[in-house]
């Protein structure tokens, strides 16, 4: 939908037993902060079990029964993630039957549905993901596809929209989805303001991988290589020669090149390109930044270099490179 400054749907959070707290509170906080900029969303919390305990033992409730909530066709219903042990139990299907029927009825009326993390299993059990593209936490994606063969599970993405159904990956991806919805409803500048209020300076879109380059290639114990990775992550705009990086790691350039690849499985050049690509994709979501500014912050000399970087795959460039 086009951005509409007056659009303020009711946001209904259907809280399941064993809910993961951040799957619930992450999106809630995003919409709460929207009031700071003139968008006071009305949020309603309901459950199909009355009082609810989170997966960490936090008591939530008593909550309004889902059947008592008046939901308009323009409203949005969120289903946060919950414990897999409950999702895999017979009680999940038995106790949730009426709730699943409620979700189906809402969807039939055009109400938009959003799941966070393993909340996708709830939508799938209700039959609402059949034939739809969807996602969940990367660790549970194969299980979702195996258990519900008619869903079109999508790997390596933070959130997916298919018609009026949104599904998102694990934990903090719920924040990304909520910011995306604000952008959809009120425009990118509004969403960016809320992100800043939350101190979320790295906004991620649907195309971002659930895996992060900031965490990838870190499964090693070499302090010198970690030092180089830390410096590159925080100083992309500065640029650095191989010799400068080698000094930081207290190695010769040749030794650093060999050690870095052995520790991470990737070359310094390819790692730096991956960092730049990730940063560029994030910065492009800020409407206040020009392409020239994005290129400069990524340590690139021109917009053309930026365009080539974003168009390239993650494969390593076989040519020797002396600067980064």
From TrEMBL:
Entry GO MF terms: DNA-binding transcription factor activity; sequence-specific DNA binding
Keywords: Transcription, Transcription regulation
UniProt protein name: AraC family transcriptional regulator
InterPro entries listed in its UniProt record: Class_I_gatase-like, DJ-1/PfpI, Homeodomain-like_sf, HTH_AraC, INH-QAR
Alphabetized Pfam families for the sequence: DJ-1_PfpI, HTH_18
SUPFAM superfamilies: Class I glutamine amidotransferase-like, Homeodomain-like
Natural source organism: Hymenobacter crusticola
Span of domain HTH araC/xylS-type: 226-324
